[in-house]
């Protein structure tokens, strides 16, 4: 019987870490109404906690990259999971809003920033020189699985018991189960006297440093830089920012029961996983810019459905459609980044994309909260999001295919 390669244990544990840690982050919307009642805060102030969280998350990413280089992905992932668990557990003892800002806005957010794609991707690259796409797909699916399991799970625990018991359960999950599991990770195959899947020679060849051919100012002058960054900012605004923060309270405002809301969130997360995997497969076979143009247009259509979802079946229809295009934009966006900037630092470009997404997420959490506080509803925020998504679709349609851009890269270098 063939022995299981330890690389599959690595990717399985990484999946569990992202499921639990990112699932806690995505569960924020379940706590909005309980915290409003508990601490007498308006929706705008509650949204500001989420906004602070996204800002801390985004700013932390370059720092996390340096810590991974210095201490290794195993240490960063394990201790980040523990920090998230301790911070969410301690919210049980919160008695005033500033403590929520401190524990969630800083503590949880720093932990979530550490247990993110940055460290996880390094592990995948170290352990896989072949089947890397599959490994990345499994890893990325951890985000969707966390959304599918922990968001409705948190919502139901709050409904049946209280938000305080819920944070205790989430904290213990991370401290007692996820943190010990993270200690099974190894930074490199050499620590297990093994080689990466696909062999050491190919891994070294694939991860060899590339020559930098563009100046920073040259990159900033490229239209494709801004036409990737701005749509991805809009992506963050309309997904993690808007929906993960405000979908649950919006659903309750419309009179939907906790059961219907939980079903919608679960459907959204389940189809999100399907969309992630499908978009990665399609991106290998079709134009990524056309895929993105289509995905942003469909997302705008799904929000139109949400605005008029006065019946449960419409809310569930929205959840299915939005789920299919939720995180599905990540693979084609990263594919375009690697194609447009293959002669430059791809890591730096991915870093810019991640920062833009978090800025969008911060705005998407805060602005709709303020609009709700002023108008008493989310309608204006949803129409704003639809307009932004149409703009994102148009910007991707205006991009040139990567092959034609690469032919012109030499001219850009000379100008830089």
TrEMBL record:
Cellular component GO terms held in the UniProt record: plasma membrane
Residue stretches spanning the membrane: 45-64, 76-95, 101-129, 141-161, 167-185, 225-243, 263-284, 314-332, 344-368, 380-399
Cellular compartments annotated: Cell membrane
Protein name in UniProt: Carboxylate transporter
UniProt entry tagged with the keyword Protein transport: no
A Pfam family recorded for this sequence: MFS_1
Keywords from the UniProt entry: Membrane, Transmembrane, Transmembrane helix, Transport
Principal location listed in the UniProt entry: membrane
Entry-linked InterPro entries: MFS, MFS_dom, MFS_trans_sf, Proton-linked_MCT
Membrane topology classification: Multi-pass membrane protein
GO molecular function: transmembrane transporter activity
Domain called Major facilitator superfamily (MFS) profile: residue spans: 9-404
